[in-house]
Amino acid sequence: MKVITIDGPSAAGKGTIGANLSQRLNCFYLDSGMLYRQIAAWVLADGASLTEESDVKNIVAKKLPFLKWVQGYVPSEDLRAPKISDAASKIGVFQEVRRLANQYQRDLVSASSGWVIVDGRDAGTVVFPDAVVKLFITASPNIRAKRRYLQLIERGYTSDLYELEEEIIQRDLRDQKRDIAPLKPAPDAYIIDTSEETIDESVQRVLKYLEKYIDA
Ligand code: DC
Q1: Which of 7, 36, 177 to mutate to test the pocket of ligand 1 (most atoms within 8 A of CB)?
Q2: How far is the CA of 36 from the centre of ligand 1 (A)?
């Protein structure tokens, strides 16, 4: 299998670009944010503290081996709720949790053939450092807050744009400043700032870049 990683902060367009590419390449797409969201939901349902590493790790070690993930899998739309976004970023700081989540992703990917797209924060830097193509998608916090706001409203959540921008900035800081696998572009990543582009323009830019890697 040949891996394309897509890293970057939340609401930069990774998901939309990743889903679009996976349709065009007809390949497996793994949204690792959903995996961290699923873990966060297990911890919240258990009532354990999000800041107790050993409790969180025990929950992951118990549940992850039984999690079945297939193409296009979204465990539940509820996992996109803002409370879960925040909790996922909190449990994502733990080394042992990341080790188990990384192994889970590598096992899934090695069971696939052809191209595989993995979207996350550290897919190109840590989980798949030998990926053939590494993309880093970003946009300004203000633009990302507006996009996330519209998504949430569309999904029926109530939201406040200014609070959302503040949450995005806080979550970025936590994801970027953590000691283990912080959010940052791999040295060999192609960096795409989508602030001034429509999603179609960004997808076209990525497809152009991929031409040299993918046979027509
Ligand atoms: O991509 P997302 O917004 O669905 O991810 C939610 C949170 O999960 C994100 O703020 C940090 C964490 N996460 C992570 O630590 N590592 C990943 N590979 C993906 C997500």
Answers
A1: 36
A2: 6
| pLDDT, tens only, 158-190 | 889 999 999 999 989 998 999 998 999 999 999
Q: Was domain 3-210 assigned CATH 3.40.50.300?
A: yes
Vertex 143 angle, CA 138 and 146, to 5°: 130
Cβ atoms of residues 97 and 35 within 8 Å: no
Q: How far apart are CA 62 and CA 95, in angstroms?
A: 17
Which residues are near ligand 1 (CB < 6 Å)? 10, 32-33, 36-37, 85, 88-89, 92, 120-122, 171, 175
pTM for this entry: 0.92
Return mean pLDDT, the chain.
92
